[in-house]
Design brief:
38% of the residues lie in helices and 17% in strands. The protein contains 23 helices and 22 strands. The strands form eight sheets. A six-stranded mixed beta sheet has the order 12-11-15-16-18-17, with helices on one face. It has a four-stranded mixed beta sheet with strand order 1-2-5-4. Helix 3 packs across helix 4 and helix 14 packs across helix 17. The protein starts with a helix and ends in a 27-residue tail after the last strand. The relative contact order is 0.06. The C terminus is likely disordered.
């Protein structure tokens, strides 16, 4: 739920208006011209939140303006309001109403829980909260939400197709997935006869026909209305013409395997050496992240809509679009930490047994983690609502941030695999210091949990951040990178980048004072690591500003002095005394 008092404080301090502070979980209202209209307006707002992820409505605050003047207040009785919302919703919705006294006014906070059913107003209007707006629901949206909340598993229902419809290639893939597991139970399943294996996996319905999950996984499309399951397009540039288009229909296991092979064939890699001499390959798009995105789309996309998963691939971006919204209760703002809730439980369970949901479906956090480990920004998860609803996952391509990838590879093993640690590292590459409140929405946790992660990174094995001296005694200090971390990250940290002219000036001044410079000195001057110091020296030598002056040719102790193009210090011209001006003193004096 929203932190209502924190938002009210920001409005009172002129930092924001109520209209700008409204979110997926917070709405502000004022009384209408009559109590009856007010009750109806609040009932509609409560239905919106109940059909989404819950939220809070604050009655008595004007949307426009800031300061105490926007707190209009309300005289409505809290108990009567609660009863009216109960009466004006179907099924009856129970909310919590609290009084808040703020800015000299009496406000009412209406806390609406996420519903267990699909709710409508007494007039039969189905509404749902979408970002900061209340929107009507279409019949398909109502049916989907009803299935999600009632526990009806569409994938477990009979497809009315017999076992003879199973595609041999798909069934062979199913056995291959089971055999590749190190689990003896799964290897035993792979040796069962076809009918027995399907029964053990729960893929046969009560009428002994294939379930819809089995039909989707193992059978070719049937009937006159067959549709594509996956559509893949590759472009040389993000807005250019497609140079490769591939389409796959069911069975899903075949489509998934072939689509991943096509995508992987067009993913290049960049070799990077870590500080301990290990070489790692940074892919243009981490295969593990792409597999995760495609697996999630195939498992959690709304199959009932019979629309394809669309993959757009170019060097600049890779996008996976799946039909339908996220599963009820999950939003882009909580997707990292919300508990797993499959849209089709039987299908998800079958994928887990095959090893796909375990190896490839470990959650969206794996996509985030793999992208940061590859020196890139996190993927963007979004739900687009137009004529149809689609859920998208966008990966940004382009050259990787090699310094960030190397830094992550050198972290303790536990932190390399910790999504929270990697997201905080990425955030600090863009901002000089952060607090728990800053990183809480980034890692999608509360302030207390965020503070715990920050303290672990400061005092645990990693020790990559530290509280700033002026805030160390605060409950929530400002945290920044340590000196060694900044040195290792170098240009990966946006605020520590230096221009070439700055670097030249400092090196030139040092040589004028001391005659020579070496790698170790450069590290101390610029607070960088040995590799960045090496690159800086190579650049200066290449431009003939410096030359090697030591007999030693390798190592950090190699010394450099002025080169042919080393700028000479300008001599100030000394002017002789004018003949018309008498000297200040003479020898005879």
């Amino acid at each position: 739920m929203a932190d209502v008092r924190s938002v009210l404080r920001s409005i009172e301090r002129l930092e924001t208006s109520a209209g700008k502070a409204e979110t997926q979980f917070l709405d502000f209202k004022t009384e209408k011209s009559t109590p009856k209209e007010t009750y109806q307006d609040l009932a509609e707002a409560a239905v919106c939140f109940a059909n989404a992820s819950g939220g809070s409505i604050v009655l008595g605050v004007r949307n426009g303006g800031t300061g105490e003047g926007v707190f209009a207040g309300t005289e409505l009785d809290a108990h009567v309001l609660r009863s009216k919302i109960y009466e004006l919703t179907e099924p009856h919705l129970t909310v919590i109403v609290r009084e808040i006294h703020w800015g000299g006014s009496r406000l009412l906070e209406i806390e609406v829980p996420e519903g267990l059913d699909v709710y409508s107003t007494g007039r039969g209007l189905f509404l749902r909260r979408w970002n900061d707006q209340c929107r009507p629901m279409r019949p398909a949206d109502v049916a989907r939400l009803s299935d999600d909340r009632s526990g009806v598993d569409w994938s477990a229902q009979s497809s009315l197709r017999s076992i003879d419809a199973v595609d041999p290639q798909a069934f062979q893939l199913l056995r291959t997935f089971l055999r590749s597991s190190s689990d003896g139970t799964k290897e035993r399943l792979a040796r069962l006869a076809e009918h027995e294996l399907l029964r053990e996996l729960g893929l046969l319905a009560s009428d002994q026909a294939l379930t819809r999950a089995a039909d989707y996984l193992l059978c070719e499309a049937s009937g006159p209305t067959t549709h594509d399951l996956i559509v893949y397009q590759h472009r040389q540039t993000s807005s250019g013409e497609a140079d490769q288009v591939r389409r796959w229909q069911a069975p899903m296991l075949v489509a998934f395997t072939e689509a991943m092979a096509v995508i992987t064939a067009r993913i290049g890699s960049t070799p990077v050496n870590t500080s301990n001499g290990q070489q790692i390959a940074i892919e243009d798009y981490p295969s593990a992240a792409v597999r995760e995105a495609l697996a999630n789309a195939l498992i959690h996309g709304d199959l009932r809509e019979r629309r394809p998963i669309q993959i757009e691939h170019s060097p600049e971006a890779l996008t996976v679009l799946s039909p339908g919204p996220l599963v009820s209760g999950i939003t882009p703002q909580n997707i990292l930490t919300h508990g797993s809730r499959p849209r089709f439980p039987l299908l998800a369970a079958s994928m887990r047994v095959l090893g796909l949901a375990e190896e490839l479906g470990q959650g969206v956090d794996r996509m985030y983690r793999e992208m940061v480990r590859s020196g890139r920004t996190v993927p963007r998860v979004h739900v687009d609502e137009g004529q149809t609803i689609e859920t998208g996952i966008d990966f940004r391509g382009g050259p990787p941030n090699v310094r960030l990838a190397r830094f992550v590879a050198d972290l303790p093993e536990a932190e390399q695999s910790d999504t929270d640690a990697l997201l905080i590292t990425l955030a600090l590459c863009q901002k000089r210091s952060v607090t728990a409140r800053d990183v809480a929405p980034v890692i999608q946790r509360g302030d207390t949990e965020a503070e715990g992660v920050l303290r672990r990174l400061a005092h645990g094995d990693a020790k990559i951040i530290e509280p700033s001296a002026g805030t160390v005694n605060r409950r929530h200090p400002n945290y920044k990178f340590t000196g060694p971390a900044l040195s290792a990250l170098g240009p990966a940290v946006a605020y520590s980048r230096r221009t070439a002219s700055e670097t030249d000036r400092k090196v030139i001044d040092h040589i004028r004072d001391y005659g020579t410079i070496n790698n170790s000195t450069l590290q101390r001057i610029f607070d960088v690591d040995v590799y960045q110091a090496r690159d800086t020296l190579r650049d200066l030598v290449g431009r003939e500003i410096l030359v090697r002056v030591s007999e030693q040719t390798r190592g950090v102790a190699v010394r450099y002095g002025p080169g042919p193009k080393f700028p000479q210090k300008r001599q100030r011209r000394r002017t002789s005394p004018s003949a018309d001006v008498p000297p200040l003193y003479s020898v005879d004096d």
